[in-house]
Amino acid sequence: MSDKKVYFICTGNSCRSQMAEGFAEKYFNSDWEIRSAGVETHGLNPLAVEVMAEVGIDISHHTSDLINNDFLQQCDLVVTLCGNARDKCPMTPSEVKRIHWPLPDPAQATGTKEQVLAVFRKVRDQINTNVRDLAQKYN
């Protein structure tokens, strides 16, 4: 039974927050309920699914969800992964620890598929490091 909650929030809940949720499911212990959401829903980005599969994490079952205010208000940790989410995230009680990671949106990358995938991988690897460090601090 989880008694602590962490929420990863970005604009569309399609890439960054989905990857963070996937890594959190790997690194956080079972005391944590882990969710991700967006201030909008853009659908799960297939390239996020692809680059996460490359590191052995399956997020293909994830859905793109709007912020659930009831869950948000009960969180121990709220992590925003872009300025838009930080600015538009609803207020939380003062005891909720809010963390901001200003990460570029890989869905905005342009170029060949390989160039775009390189951006997704770079963002994925940064999220991996950030989530692993967060789990070490709060587990």
Task: Report on this structure.
With 139 residues, this protein is an alpha/beta fold. The chain has a single domain (4-132), classed as Rossmann fold, CATH 3.40.50. 42% of the residues lie in helices and 16% in strands. Helix 1 crosses helix 5 (113-138) and helix 2 packs across helix 5. The chain starts with a strand and ends with a helix.
Alpha carbon gap, first and last residue = 15 Å
Helix content: 40-55%
Top CATH class: Alpha Beta
CATH architecture: 3-Layer(aba) Sandwich
The main pleated sheet reads as: 4 strands, parallel
Task: Name its key features.
alpha/beta; 139 residues; 42% helix; Rossmann fold; four-stranded parallel sheet; 5 helices; 4 strands
Which helices and strands, and how do they pair?
Elements: E1 4-10, H1 16-27, E2 32-38, H2 46-54, H3 69-74, E3 77-80, H4 83-88, E4 97-100, H5 113-138
Helix pairs in contact: 1-5, 2-5
Brief digest:
With 139 residues, this protein is α/β, with parallel strands linked by helices. It is built from five helices and four strands, in the order E-H-E-H-H-E-H-E-H.
